Amino acid sequence: MASEYDPSEFVDSDFQSAQRTGTSVATAVPAFASDTSRAPTRAEVEAKVGDMHNKLAELRRAQQELERERADLEETRRRQNEFTKGRQEMEQHLTRGIGLLEEAEFAARREAEQMAKALLDLRESLVKVQSVHEESWTRDNFNTELTRALTTIENARMEWNSARLKFAIITGDSPQSATSEPASPSDPFAPNVLRERSYAELCKMGLALTWPVALVGVIIVLVLLLRH
């Protein structure tokens, strides 16, 4: 007996399922492609613009921070240069000033020592001159006392002339005027005049200064000879 006819036996179920899957994929691809190629919406543009503004603001803040750091570094460099230059300048000035003051102090101390010695000699000469009392002389010691008095006066004159040559303040001249103004040619004791004179002239000047002492010595010798 022949079997009953079943139409489902001639239908390929796998082929039909594959055909249905391909159709769904084909319909999905155009939808996806159309989604990527669409124009941006206003909300998306606004969002992108906001992001750009935020990034620009961050860049501006970073730039301002770098500008502040650069200004601080330049100020530090300027102060360092000022310190280095000022230190070198002050080292030079202080070294020079110390040297000049030390030299001036040494000269002033030496001059003060010479002045103190001259002051002591002048005071001793003044005491000796004031100690001469001619009212106490007698006829017998008149010549002797006169000789002693002349010797005292001459020694005092020599001390005076020596101090006058060393210290211009004694004659009323300031140290500045003494160094800046030339010595008068009429002053025989001026240092420049003494340097310009010859040895013979200096000997004559020395003889002119010391002849009273020599005369006193001769008188003393004569008095002693007459007593014998």
Order of helices and strands: HHHHHH
> Strand share of the residues?
under 5%
Cα distance spanning the termini:
213 Å
Low-pLDDT runs? 23-34, 177-183
Q: How many domains?
A: 2
**What structural class do helix, strand and pairing data support?**
mainly alpha
Question: Which term fits the overall shape?
Answer: rod-shaped
Q: What's the average pLDDT?
A: 77
How many H/I helical runs?
6
Structural topology:
Elements (H helix, E strand, L loop, with lengths): L12 H24 L5 H89 L11 H25 L8 H6 L10 H6 L2 H29 L1
Helix pairs in contact: 2-3, 3-6
Quick gist of this model?
By secondary structure, the protein is an all-alpha fold. The chain contains 6 helices and no strands. It folds into 2 domains: 53-131; 136-173 and 183-227.
